[in-house]
Amino acid sequence: MKENYPRRAFRVNPDLSVNCALMLGVFAVLALGGVLWGLWLLLWRRPDWPVVLAGCVFPLGLWLARRTGRAALAVPSGFFRVDLWLFFLGFTFWRVILSVTQTAWAAVTGKINPGVVAVPLRVRTEMAQLLLLWAITVTPGTIGLLAEGDILYVHCLYVPPGAALPGVDRLQDILARIWG
Predict the structure, then answer these.
(1) The pTM is what?
(2) What is the largest CA-CA distance in the chain?
(3) pLDDT in tens, 112-154
(4) Nearest alpha-carbon partner for 178 in 80, 73, 57, 66
(5) CA dihedral sign, ordered 77, 83, 86, 91
(6) Which of 45, 68, 92, 128 is the most buried (most CB within 10 A)?
(7) Which residues contact residue 127 at a Cβ distance below 8 angstroms, ignoring those fewer than 6 apart?
(8) 3-state DSSP of 123-150
(9) Which of 99, 109, 110 is nearest to 156 (CA)?
């Protein structure tokens, strides 16, 4: 069957970067709003309709704040790399498993060597520093004490030889790729 209408030429928008930035902004709002909505549901522990409906306030409020210019969501391009996030979470989980066994062994044998270690910070953004501090604190036997300037102070139940925390350099490399 022959078409009786003229074909339209497909034109590429010359300002494609604006469309990409808009898409990234929409995706960031949806992702962050979805996380907030999910946390709201976890907080209430019931998916009843009033809870679900009230949880929609977070994504809608975030969208409205972004549309009116009251909130800017500037996320780096590495934020959308799922492989880096999985590697970060997997590496952190592996460090937790190793720390659990080391802390359990220290509790059984009674051999501990507590101390404070100064870790040089190579990540520059506050979010990357926060995630690094979380990854260090979530592992048993270590607690992030203070981030001051380019130094992060960490209290360790067992200070490793050389006073360098194992795995922290690798975590900083991953976070630098995610958050820039």
Answers:
(1) 0.62
(2) 87
(3) 888 899 999 999 888 888 889 989 988 888 898 888 888 999 9
(4) 80
(5) negative
(6) 128
(7) 179
(8) CCCHHHHHHHHHHHHHCCCEEEEEEECC
(9) 99
User: Residue ranges per domain, the chain?
Assistant: 16-75, 79-179
Residue with tokens 């549309």: 67
Are 53 and 46 a contacting pair, CB within 8 Å? no
Q: For the chain, give the number of residues.
A: 180
6 burial type by CB count under 10 A (0-12 exposed, 13-18 middle, 19+ buried) = exposed
Tens digits of per-residue pLDDT, 38-82? 777 777 777 788 877 777 777 777 777 777 877 666 667 676 778
Q: Are 59 and 36 in contact (CB under 8 A)?
A: yes
Angle between helices 16-44 and 57-67 (to 10 degrees): 150
Q: What is the three-class DSSP state of 153? A: strand
Looking at residue 135, its amino acid is A
Q: For strand 142-148 and strand 151-156, is the pairing parallel, antiparallel, or unpaired?
A: antiparallel
Cα(96)–Cα(100) distance, rounded to whole angstroms? 6
Residue environment code for 110-128, b if the CB has 16+ CB neighbours within 10 A, otherwise e: eeeeeeebebebebeeeeb
